[in-house]
């Protein structure tokens, strides 16, 4: 099953802003059990989040909904709307373009949401192809095995005997029948390797063809960068104190970052090209549970909005904000600088990809200043790390197969 | 390679380059400022007495040492403007007892700041921490009396708390050798032992390049302030002067260790089927939690039993990595153990090479000392006065505590925290990698409680002189 990203952008009627903030805080305050959106009952929903963008007065107040779900948008929205129609009406009745005096019916709501949905230029999935049902099943299988190990320790048994017990146990357990993935993680990493070779084979000749253009582009880039250095006068922006209240409650956290794209066509097209490249890599190479080396992202996306004047980044990640930002710098600073050096206030960069996010403290400060508080954030498995999920999936997909020697040892050490 | 700028040792307080190992006696005085003028005059007299790293470089062995550090509120008491204090990082400005920090540090339940003896919301505001060291008890008393006299006679300072320490053993109270693995500072004058990392000075001293090849953010003051011309001009902003240069942050935490409960727990987990205790098994289990044997021998190099010669040999006892020394799975030193969490060396994703780089970006200079005292019910309370120096509280101390020690998901684990020093609550477990499958020790209690603490700044000598200016 393919996972998709849905992003819905609506303008808020300015006079209704306080009411909407109150409503979203109420929903977010008890996200698992609120009376508006029954998140936990939506079987195709991995993550969901509403944010309000209102601080930059150049733009009207805006509501952004983003979610990560299984299957295509239409089918998912049918399921989503079926249980949440009243809640969605409450939220969207304070937005522009909403013209349903007695509330939208399911078909109208779906139309309204789809009409306001935007495309996603770069989208990354941590465990591609794993539906929520599949993920829950993998967690259940591993938990079942763990419970069995804890109730009957296996000290002294041979590896083969221990494995036989585990396999028997799963076979006999009728509550958790493994639903094996159509493509195993090993097959996926094989595909990633093939894809990168193919991409290189196709990309290299193209690169040679466009080389003259690249030189021109590079000279222009350096001119822009020198100018930016001269004119950069970075104001210190306030940090939303509510950010800290929503963090580190669960193992997972959410990050929304909003920045303005530097003016001019050059920066915009450079940005679009970098996002296109990241998206290409996310679909072909970064399909094994890391985005440019960062192993803790479940889903991430970049969205251009307001006629390409603003860039939004959404991600759902494991661990603390400090460790996530540290990973950005330790492992993926070139890629991130390639994106964000085209936006305002980012720490100074050179050659598009260098500098920027390498300045760890400045980068963290920049991030905090541009982070948007998420009044509503939902995760279907908030205490599972991506690393946990990968182990769970591997355990579920292999348990029961004939394993020997090193393979068997590797399997047993997953637990 | 660009040249490493020399450390300005005479401007750096002594504690940064030495733990004063030859001075087993120490006293920590926590003071509050009542009158600014008096406090400044007192500090002015004290500055010439502050031990610096320069004095130590001259190889003479002093009999006593004095160092001084300030909380953010303390700097304000000494007259720093709110604008200047706001150039310090958020964690330091908030202070260790702030709710945000408690969540990050796991200071909850009995370890919450509301329960603390020092540094908590109800135990009196801390402004200054005076650190006194001496080779003898008598020496400490003389030094302390002399300084105390200057404090009590109208200095404008009052004592909020005092804590004594006598380092009677190389072992910490649970019985394990402590103070083995410590990074060295590039350009410092210490001897580097095999396996010891040499880190960029900017990891531990402000004003120098750090492990990211950039300068740490520099706390600064308005260049127009009278007296500020002592301080170097900021390289990035001509209207500011560098207050932070040659200074660093000091984490001070009083951690009580429930030694009795610790060993009782080991006993209860290792009894034979007939109920008999087995001392060797208890020590083996405790060593799995630490990652080293009591002698200090690392489990990775001595998987089956203690090796006191190895443990005592500074040339060998820290010369290892986990994956490089065939312990990738953790069969010898568990992934969950204290030393594998607090310094994962080559075990972080995606690969050992990258991991070595990342691990070095979260190191601490540990300066802890043990304490023992009689508590009201007549029992003995033992523990560590945990002290650590770092140039970035969030990236170093808090990161180690939050992302490595207290995280139930560290390095792919499912639900386990540092068995020795985390905020365990009796529901978690410890995982010991084994064959055919891992062993799970259930019901891990919290053996270590927090009794107090604070975030301090240990300024350079010139910055201290600036503070004395009226
Ligand atoms: C009462 C509490 C604690 C006890 C009993 C304790 C005990 C130990 C012991 C026995 C060692 C091994 C010896 C050595 O390498 O020096 C060690 C190492 C270490 N501990 Fe702790 N510790 C405590 C608290 C902490 C805390 C709060 C932190 C940091 C937040 C910490 C960080 C470290 C680090 C970084 C190492 C060195 C790891 C390495 O580089 O191999 N410890 N500790």
Largest sheet of chain A: 4 strands, antiparallel
Following the backbone from N to C, one meets helices and strands of chain B in this order, namely HEHHEHHHHEHEEEEEEHHHHHEEEHEEEH
Runs of chain A with pLDDT <50, length 5+?
Answer: none
Order of strands across the widest beta sheet of chain A? Answer: 1-3-2-10
Number of strands of chain A: 10
Radius of gyration of chain B: 22 Å
| Number of discrete helical segments of chain A | 13
Strand content of chain A: 15-25%
DSSP strand content of chain B: 15-25%
Structural description of this entry:
- The complex is a heterodimer of chains A (415) and B (470).
- Chain A is α+β, with helices and mostly antiparallel strands and 415 residues long.
- Chain A has 3 domains: 3-118, Alpha-Beta Plaits (2-Layer Sandwich); 150-177 and 387-414, no CATH class; 185-288 and 298-373, no CATH class.
- Chain A contains 13 helices and 10 strands.
- Chain A has helices at residues 17-29, 73-92, 106-115, 132-151, 159-172, 185-209, 211-231, 242-245, 265-284, 321-340, 360-370, 386-398, 405-413, and strands spanning 3-11, 45-53, 62-70, 122-125, 252-260, 297-305, 310-318, 349-350, 354-355, 376-379.
- Chain A has a 4-stranded antiparallel β-sheet. A 4-stranded antiparallel β-sheet of chain A has the order 4-6-7-5.
- In chain A, strand 6 and strand 7 (310-318) form a beta hairpin.
- In chain A, helix 4 crosses helix 12 (386-398) and helix 9 (265-284) crosses helix 10.
- The longest helix of chain A has 25 residues, at 185-209.
- Chain A is globular, with a radius of gyration of 23 Å.
- Chain B has 15 helices and 15 strands.
- Chain B has 2 domains: 9-253 and 453-467, no CATH class; 256-363 and 408-451, no CATH class.
- In chain B, strand 11 (369-374) and strand 12 form a beta hairpin.
- In chain B, strands 9, 10, 11, 12 and 15 form a 5-stranded antiparallel β-sheet that branches. In chain B, strands 2-3-1-4 form a 4-stranded antiparallel β-sheet. In chain B, strands 5-6 form a two-stranded parallel ribbon.
- Chain B is 26% helix and 19% strand.
- Chain B has 470 residues and is α+β, with helices and mostly antiparallel strands.
- The chains are: A alpha+beta (415), B alpha+beta (470).
- Bound molecules: protoporphyrin IX containing FE.
- Protoporphyrin IX containing FE (HEM) is lined by residues 172, 174, 176, 178-181, 255, 257, 290, 292, 338-339, 342-343, 364, 383-384, 386, 397, 400-401, 405, 420-421, 448 of chain B.
């Amino acid at each position: 099953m393919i996972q998709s990203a849905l992003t819905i952008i609506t303008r808020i009627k300015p006079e209704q802003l306080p009411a909407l903030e109150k409503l979203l805080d109420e929903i977010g305050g008890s996200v698992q059990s609120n009376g508006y959106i029954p998140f936990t009952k939506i079987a195709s929903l991995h993550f969901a989040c509403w944010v309000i963008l209102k601080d930059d007065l150049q733009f009207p107040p805006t509501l952004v909904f983003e979610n990560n779900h299984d299957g295509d948008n239409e089918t998912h929205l049918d399921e989503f709307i079926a249980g949440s129609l009243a809640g969605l009406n409450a939220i969207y009745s304070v937005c522009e373009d909403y013209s349903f005096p007695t509330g939208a019916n399911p078909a109208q709501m779906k139309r309204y949401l789809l009409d306001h949905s935007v495309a996603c230029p770069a989208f990354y999935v941590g465990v591609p192809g794993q539906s929520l049902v599949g993920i829950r099943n993998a967690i259940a299988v591993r938990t079942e095995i763990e419970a069995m190990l804890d109730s009957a320790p296996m000290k002294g048994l041979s590896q083969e005997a221990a494995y036989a017990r585990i396999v028997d146990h799963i076979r006999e357990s009728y509550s958790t029948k493994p639903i094996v993935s159509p493509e195993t993680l090993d097959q996926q990493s094989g595909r990633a390797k093939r894809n990168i070779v193919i991409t290189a084979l196709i990309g290299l000749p193209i690169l040679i063809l466009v080389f003259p253009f690249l030189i021109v582009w590079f000279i222009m880039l350096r001119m822009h960068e020198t100018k930016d250095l001269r004119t950069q006068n970075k104001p210190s922006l306030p940090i939303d104190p509510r950010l800290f209240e929503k963090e580190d409650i669960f193992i997972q956290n959410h990050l929304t970052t909003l920045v303005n794209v530097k003016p001019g066509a050059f920066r915009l097209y450079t940005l679009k090209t970098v996002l296109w490249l990241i998206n290409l890599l996310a679909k072909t190479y970064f399909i094994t549970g890391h985005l440019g080396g960062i192993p803790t992202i479940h889903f991430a996306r970049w969205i251009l909005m307001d006629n390409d004047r603003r860039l939004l980044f959404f991600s759902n990640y494991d661990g603390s904000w400090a460790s996530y930002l540290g990973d950005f710098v330790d492992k993926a600073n070139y890629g991130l600088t390639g994106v964000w050096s085209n936006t305002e206030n980012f720490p100074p960069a050179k050659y598009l990809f260098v500098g920027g996010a390498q300045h760890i403290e400045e980068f963290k400060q920049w991030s905090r200043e541009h982070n948007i508080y998420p009044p509503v954030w939902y995760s279907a498995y908030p205490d599972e790390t991506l690393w946990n999920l990968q182990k769970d999936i591997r355990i579920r997909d292999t348990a029961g197969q004939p394993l020997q020697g090193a393979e068997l040892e590797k399997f047993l050490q997953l637990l | 390679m660009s040249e490493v700028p020399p450390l300005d040792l005479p401007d750096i307080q002594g504690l940064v380059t030495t733990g004063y190992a030859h001075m087993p006696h120490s006293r920590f005085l926590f003071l509050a400022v009542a009158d600014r003028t008096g406090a400044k005059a007192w500090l002015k007299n004290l500055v010439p007495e502050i031990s610096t790293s320069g004095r130590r470089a001259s190889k003479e062995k002093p009999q006593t040492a004095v160092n001084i550090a300030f909380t953010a509120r303390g700097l304000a008491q000494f007259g720093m403007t709110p604008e200047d204090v706001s150039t310090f990082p958020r964690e330091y400005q908030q202070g260790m007892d702030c709710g945000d920090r408690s969540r990050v540090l796991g200071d909850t339940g009995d370890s919450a700041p509301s329960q603390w003896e020092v540094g908590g919301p109800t135990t009196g505001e801390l402004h200054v921490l005076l650190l006194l060291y001496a080779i003898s008890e008598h020496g400490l008393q003389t030094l302390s009396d002399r300084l105390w006299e200057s404090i009590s006679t109208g200095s404008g300072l009052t004592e909020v708390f005092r804590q004594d320490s006598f380092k009677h053993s190389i072992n910490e109270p649970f019985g394990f050798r402590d103070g083995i693995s410590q990074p060295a500072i590039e350009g410092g004058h210490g001897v580097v032992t095999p396996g010891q990392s040499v880190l960029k000075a900017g990891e531990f001293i402000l004003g120098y390049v750090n492990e990211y090849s950039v300068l740490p953010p520099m706390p600064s003051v308005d260049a127009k302030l009278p007296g500020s011309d002592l301080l170097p001009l900021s390289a990035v902003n001509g209207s500011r002067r560098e207050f932070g240069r040659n200074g660093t942050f000091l984490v001070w935490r009083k951690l009580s260790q429930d030694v009795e409960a610790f060993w009782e727990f080991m006993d209860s987990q290792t009894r034979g089927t007939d109920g008999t205790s087995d001392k060797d098994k208890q020590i083996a289990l405790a060593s799995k939690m630490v990652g080293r044997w009591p002698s200090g021998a690392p489990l990775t190099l001595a998987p089956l039993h203690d090796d006191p010669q190895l443990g005592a040999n500074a040339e060998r006892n820290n010369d290892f990595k986990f994956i490089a020394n065939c312990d990738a799975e953790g069969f010898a030193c568990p992934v969950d153990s204290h030393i594998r969490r607090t310094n994962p060396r080559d075990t972080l994703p995606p690969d050992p090479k990258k991991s070595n780089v990342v691990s070095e970006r979260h190191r601490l200079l540990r300066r802890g000392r043990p304490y023992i005292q009689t508590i009201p019910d007549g029992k003995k309370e033992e523990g560590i006065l945990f002290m650590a120096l770092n140039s970035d509280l969030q990236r170093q101390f808090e990161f180690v505590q939050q992302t490595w020690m207290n995280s139930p998901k560290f390095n792919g684990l499912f639900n386990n925290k540092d068995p020795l020093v985390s905020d365990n609550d009796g529901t978690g477990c410890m995982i010991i990698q084994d064959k055919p499958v891992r062993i799970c020790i259930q019901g891990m209690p919290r053996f270590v409680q927090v009794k107090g603490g604070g975030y301090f700044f240990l300024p350079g000598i010139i910055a201290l002189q600036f503070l004395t200016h009226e």
